[in-house]
């Protein structure tokens, strides 16, 4: 179990959550001297930078953008006197990829993994009623012992450089909000919920984990604020007649208010928004509340101009409006868990999320995304001496992701890896542990999956049996047989799908990636690769194939929007497979998708 609570930070009558976002002092550690020179006491320089944001795209110098190493931040925070007597934490929404935190010069704690929250306990170290200095040393080096995987090389001038084994820019820094959190000594530490939906009623099973002691009471209220049920005790079942179910694109959220009391006095209170729904795979069907759904949507990225991967509330709003406009109902958080606000919005808007851990780059090759499709670059990724260390970090990320996201009705599945080298025989024990952990950590036992690239073919993949539903990333008409050969691409695609059909897995298949790079500036008749006309043709081909197989139960096109990658021959200032530009305006293909998705019924093929 994690030693800090993953509950979303809320202000309640017993808790205080103060956002520390704003301009923080900032210093890159060019000569790797920060620790020796005690920057933990205070960092040098006068530069300031916004938090949350990636640091890379603010500056005009290339050496800053490409900086790899220790990135130091500093701010001052008054820890109010009223917090004394409580447990007090600094809560980081994410620090990419690892961080050490110092309070008033003293080491306070550290965390590895760049896309999930962590709390640093400062109860003893804080100076109450006074100004405290917070210094954070973030490190953005890529390794093969942490996810996402990559390498860090050293150039001839001594500078370090990131070599990701994945296709997105190594944006880093304090990319999500930071909070000062005060929680009572005895507190609500965690909550698990599970739903049994039947005709005309629902049972809500709950488990509250308490730190310290106290009596637990719960009250469930509807969207009008009316209390519809109450319960007592840390575990139990709430029965509801005629519940409002949480439905796809038609959400309904109840509020579960939990109170912890001692001798009749409330000592902690916390509220959770919940949606009553269940998720199940049955044969080829993905069932929400017992009804089959066909997934329509995107693989996305947290990526936008200027702030990079920094959470941007305006971009989030625009993205949801575009997803609604185009008729989507789902997305995958490729290739890492996103900011918590995005799940809260998906809960409200009724979107379905395949929640992905940062298990990407587990296929060694400098340009994995390119070699992978052609069968090159397989080097037994899971057979390295360092694999056990990587697995430990991976399992930790799965634990943190599930602890954080398990109560979101929008989250319908866990994606545990993206495009791993699942042809390596040593991938089998690795996968076994990941899939077992995801099952054990989630009382809802949501379906588990991983996204498979082309080498993970019906005959060569050793791990697809672990998946409760199969996710395929396929690029027929782009990486495979693009351009004038597209006519053969369709045949080759159908041949592969026939092989899957012959295996008769009796599971749903979802395309978690398909698409083509397209420059919004290019139009050409007849079409050529990179033109908008060609993107339309590739998608039409792929959709024709999807429509031909009844076990294909979802399509999430790659990608929602153009996004930044490492520079290279294959990328024209980023990946251009977006249906929307990076500025969130439609390419021509957006209208094609809108027409298709608005016409496909939710229970398509069931
Ligand atoms: C995407 C071989 C396919 C790899 N897949 C992963 C994803 O992260 C990439 O951006 C393909 C692409 O556009 O190449």
Q: Which molecules other than protein and nucleic acid are bound? A: ligand CKU
How many independent structural domains? 3
Assembly status: single chain
CATH class descriptor name of the largest domain: Alpha Beta
How would you state the average pLDDT, rounded?
A: 96
What does this entry look like structurally?
This protein is an alpha/beta fold. The protein folds into 3 domains: 16-183, Galactose-binding domain-like (Jelly Rolls), CATH 2.60.120.260; 187-277, Immunoglobulin-like (Sandwich); 280-599, Alpha-Beta Barrel (TIM Barrel), CATH 3.20.20.80. The protein has helices at 62-65, 313-326, 340-349, 368-374, 387-405, 427-441, 486-503, 532-547, 589-599; strands at residues 16-19, 22-28, 48-51, 70-79, 87-92, 98-103, 106-112, 118-121, 130-139, 150-154, 160-164, 178-183, 187-198, 201-211, 215-221, 227-232, 235-241, 254-262, 265-274, 279-282, 285-288, 291-292, 295-299, 330-332, 352-356, 411-418, 448-452, 470-473, 509-513, 552-558. It has an 8-stranded parallel β-barrel. The protein has a 6-stranded antiparallel β-sheet with strand order 3-2-4-9-6-7, with no helix packed on it. α5 (387-405) packs parallel to α6 (427-441). The mean pLDDT is 96. It binds ligand CKU. The site of ligand CKU has 12 residues, from α4. Ligand CKU binds at residues 166-167, 369, 372-373, 419, 453, 473, 513, 558, 575, 577.
Keywords:
alpha/beta; Jelly Rolls; Immunoglobulin-like; TIM Barrel; six-stranded antiparallel beta sheet; globular; binds ligand CKU
